[in-house]
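Explain the record.
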Amino acid sequence: MTPAKNEPTFEPSFCAMLTRCPGLQALIIQNPLGVVPYHHDHDGLLESYQVNITNTVLVVLATSCTQLKQVTIEGTCHGYTPSGFNRYANSNGSNNLEYLKVDLNPDDYDIPQIVNMLPRLVTLYCNNLGFQTRFAVQPLLQQRGGSLLEDRYFPW
């Protein structure tokens, strides 16, 4: 990330904004296909400004935006770790979450545990969960009247 002169980086600016949004109900962050948004710096040159959702951002979401019902984080904009995401899912601040669309690799994340930690989650949208994870998660969501949505990428 290369912010313009005297311009804060994304994380602190975004976190400061989130602390002022306690009633936020939907958060959609998309950075499809690794597209990097740009802004003008003071010299008129374009500088990249990469969106990055980190563990710190998740902590601020959990403490400041407790009314969130929908979270979508797409593309290459996630810099959180499994432990950071688990802390978010296990916090009281995520208790109202009903819809979650994120990239969670089943090799790194315990997705059934995450679904169990989110008591109101009815829709989970992920990519390439694999048979075992899908088999464990889908019934949990169906018991809540929801569903598992999945994009599957095929190697051919």
User: Anything to note?
Assistant: Confidence is low (pLDDT under 50) at residues 1-8, 33-41.
